[in-house]
Amino acid sequence: MEIIIQPTPEEASRLAARLVAHALREKPDCVLGMATGGTPVKLYEELVRLHVEEDLDFSRATAFNLDEYVGLPGDHPCSYRYFMEEHLYRHVNISPERVHIPNGMAEDIPAECEMYEAAIRTAGGIDMQILGIGSDGHIGFNEPTSSLASRTRIKTLTDKTRRDNARTFGSVKDVPKHVLTMGVGTIMDSRQVVLLAFGSQKANAIARTVEGPISAMMPASILQTHRVAKIFMDEEAAGLLERKAYYKWVFEGKPDWQKF
Ligand code: PGA
To answer: d(Cα 128, Cα 66) in Å, to the nearest integer?
Structure first.
């Protein structure tokens, strides 16, 4: 795991965007795994800026989103398809047929989940998976006690996650109880993971993810066993890390070319 602590979410997001841009320039047909929520918004803003001002080209890229609410159509303003269109896809030149988001309206949910896994395989697997982290340690919508080997499937959200996500719905009672999400195993298959975490409300989950034991109670902790996991955070999210000074020292000592 590489721990990258920056003073602010803006600086951390800019660095993470450089990493995504580097991956896209090295491999224009890169397969990107995308995340939703408040955390990656600044990263997407920066990717849009890089597209507009520096010709970052998404024309051959493929994208797979982590998750979607069950029962929300893609044009619902709280759906994750809508979120992705608003924050990234409609502002860059990615082709719509290479954008994949689980269909929360599917009649046959197990078939939809199997198709999603098959589409990821057909695309050659995910090169770089962007992740946020829930305050309970979830990645995607893999809530605590999710199997660390799980694949794309339906999950029931915890009350805590529904409360955390109520801000976009206006009221907790409107937040769907069920979601489709890539599994922890699906996420672990990606070649590189880029997790972002900002704010003191993420500090406990980050400390347990980075320095705690690996446990299904803290699904993100399995990333300790991923070969290339980069964890970007601001000072607040880093607040409970025991070895914070060490991580900063390591990052500061890196040659520039290695800071992507
Ligand atoms: P947030 O959600 O970015 O809105 O904090 C993160 C997550 O649930 O993974």
So the answer is: 12
Q: Tell me how far apart the alpha carbons of residues 39 and 45 are, in angstroms, rounded to a whole number.
A: 11
User: DSSP string spanning 20-72?
Assistant: HHHHHHH-TT-EEEE--SSTTHHHHHHHHHHHHHH----TT-EEEESEEETT-
pTM of structure: 0.97
Distance CA 61, CA 52 (A): 16
- 133 ligand 1 Cβ < 6 A: yes
Ligand 1 within 6 A of CB of 134: yes
pLDDT at site 135: 94
Q: Computed over its alpha carbons, how large is the radius of gyration of the chain?
A: 17
Tell whether the model's pLDDT for residue 260 goes beyond 80: no
| Active site members | 67, 136, 138, 143
Q: CA of 150: how far to CAs of 155, 183, 233, 249, in Å? A: 11, 4, 26, 35
- Cα torsion angle, 205, 208, 210, 216, sign: negative
How many angstroms separate the CA atoms of 221 and 215, rounded? 6
Atom of ligand 1 nearest to the CA of 202: 5
Verify whether ligand 1 is closer than 6 Å to residue 140 (CB atom): no
> What pairs with residue 234 in β-bridges?
6
Distance 139 CA to ligand 1 centre (A): 9
Could you tell me the CA-to-CA distances from 124 to 29, 30, 121, 170, 255 in Å, in that order?
Answer: 10, 9, 5, 39, 31
